[in-house]
């Protein structure tokens, strides 16, 4: 088809621009925490996208976790309306990156290009995806200026810390409601031939056991909270971990090990807190009267969050039946329900077709082991027609010497551009009118 051929040529012609854009984005260190330079990157994106004819809104998520005058939570939504009514396709990327950590051999904020790879913190997760979506949209506008509907590109804060100052806030203000936006693509690094339909659920809880303080030379006069917690962990090893390993999901979760329920013990603290690094004294002899453990339970679409909680309570009840003076408290810290977009949803079908046309092979469908901003688009925005699709290798995210491949960015920009043609260039034949179910009713 002529339009698609023109688009591919346009995108190939923008290779240098795509590289420069990715490098510019990487050179603005948007570390989160604490949430640095959000305004700077939004200003940069505003300049770029208003030049391409987008209307810009800069939105600060006042009062959300971490928002302050020093570290304001800025977000950008850019929108370009077509000449005719139609559907709106929204590309959502988070602008924050995680801590650099150790082990880098490249400058984490240098954006170096070496052998077709651009290095930097956030290169694959996910400034490369953001750059690819911008170039895809601009190339589409160049070959199809009289399109129907609208294109939106957003850069949002705080995905790495839960998304409350970003997509959750915007969804709460109606920016992701199905009457405004119909298709959402989140260019997270899932590899250029994979469509991510959703993610597992999360339940975080803090569990505390109580004891009684006494002199460490006479522990029989007190009651050791750490030993109580040890009994809890032992019971988990005996009953809970084997049970979780038996729970398999039909969700296409990657990697393979995450196709089951999992539980991580994130932290455990009992007794006296550790001394400051420069404290040279000895600890004092005390029986610990408290021990706290944070657990991170990831659960499946087939599971119910009430059952997930009940399993942990069951462990505690079993231990309580065995041990004298066993007292505990269980507090929920955070919960996210699992989500998975139907395979026949319009955005899934469109992107799958574009992957087959661009890459010459069928798309692979996956589900993420951890959550991302789709949770807020689904639960707060009530918008189901949403996927993650973008360039980059997921395993490199958050690692030293993170990079994104230029060819991968170009290929995924072609997939995004073809998807825009499919959804916006031919409104009469668009996915809405092809029959079949559409998920955003
Ligand atoms: Zn990410």
Radius of gyration over C-alpha positions, nearest whole angstrom = 25 Å
Strand order of the largest sheet: 1-2-6-3-7-15
Quote the average pLDDT.
Answer: 94
- Using the 3D structure, state the CATH architecture of the largest domain: 3-Layer(aba) Sandwich
Number of helices: 10
Tally of DSSP β-strands: 16
What overall geometry do the principal axes of the alpha carbons give? elongated
Which CATH top level class of the largest domain fits? Alpha Beta
Name of the CATH homologous superfamily of the largest domain: Zn peptidases
CATH topology of the largest domain: Aminopeptidase
What proportion of the residues form beta strands (DSSP E)?
15-25%
Number of individual domains: 2
| Main structural class | alpha/beta
Bound molecules: zinc ion
What is the percent of helical residues?
Answer: 25-40%
pLDDT below 50 for ≥5 consecutive residues: which ranges?
427-441
Describe the main β-sheet briefly.
6 strands, mixed
Question: Which sequence of SSEs, written as H and E, runs from N to C?
Answer: HHHEEEEEHEHEEEHEEHEEHEHEEH
- N- and C-termini, Cα separation: 31 Å
Protein name: Acetylornithine deacetylase
Pfam family, one: Peptidase_M20
InterPro entries: ArgE/DapE, Bact_exopeptidase_dim_dom, Peptidase_M20, Peptidase_M20_dimer, Peptidase_M20A
Cofactor: Zn(2+); Co(2+)
């Amino acid at each position: 088809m002529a339009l698609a051929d023109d688009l591919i040529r346009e995108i190939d012609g923008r290779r240098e621009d795509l590289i420069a854009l990715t490098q510019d984005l990487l050179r603005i260190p948007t570390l989160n925490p604490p949430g640095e330079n959000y305004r700077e990157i939004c200003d940069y994106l505003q300049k770029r996208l208003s030049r391409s004819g987008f209307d810009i809104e800069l939105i600060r998520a006042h009062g959300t976790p971490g928002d302050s005058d020093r570290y304001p939570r800025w977000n950008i939504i850019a929108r370009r309306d077509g000449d005719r009514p139609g559907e709106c396709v929204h590309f959502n990327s988070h602008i924050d990156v995680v801590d650099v950590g150790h082990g880098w051999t490249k400058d984490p904020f240098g954006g170096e290009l070496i052998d077709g790879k651009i290095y930097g913190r956030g290169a694959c997760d996910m400034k490369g995806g953001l750059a690819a979506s911008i170039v895809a949209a601009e190339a589409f506008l160049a070959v199809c200026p009289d399109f129907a509907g609208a294109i939106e590109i957003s850069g949002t804060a705080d995905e790495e810390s839960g998304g409350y100052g970003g997509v959750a806030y915007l969804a709460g203000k109606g920016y992701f409601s199905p009457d405004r936006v119909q298709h959402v693509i989140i260019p997270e690094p899932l590899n250029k031939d994979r469509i991510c339909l959703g993610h597992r659920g999360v339940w975080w809880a803090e569990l505390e056991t109580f004891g009684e303080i006494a002199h460490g030379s006479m522990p029989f006069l007190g009651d050791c909270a750490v030993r109580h917690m040890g009994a809890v962990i032992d019971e988990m090893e005996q009953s809970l971990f084997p049970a979780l390993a038996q729970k398999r999901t039909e969700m296409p979760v990657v990697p393979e090990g995450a196709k089951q329920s999992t539980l991580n013990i994130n932290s455990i603290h009992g007794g006296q807190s550790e001394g400051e690094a420069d404290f040279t004294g000895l600890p004092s002899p005390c029986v610990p009267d408290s021990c706290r453990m944070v657990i991170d339970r990831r659960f499946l679409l087939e599971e119910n969050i009430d059952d997930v909680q009940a399993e942990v309570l069951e462990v505690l009840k079993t231990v309580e039946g065995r041990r004298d003076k066993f007292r505990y408290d269980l507090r929920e810290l955070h919960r996210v329900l699992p989500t998975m977009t139907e395979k026949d949803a319009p955005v899934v079908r469109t992107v799958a077709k574009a992957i087959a046309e661009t890459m010459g092979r069928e798309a692979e469908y996956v589900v993420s082991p951890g959550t991302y901003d789709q949770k807020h688009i689904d639960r707060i925005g009530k918008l189901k027609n949403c996927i993650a699709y973008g360039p980059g290798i997921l395993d490199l995210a958050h690692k030293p010497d993170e990079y994104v491949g230029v060819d991968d960015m170009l290929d995924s920009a072609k997939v995004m551009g073809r998807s825009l043609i499919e959804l916006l260039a031919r409104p009469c034949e668009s996915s809405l009118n092809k029959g079949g179910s559409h998920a955003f009713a």
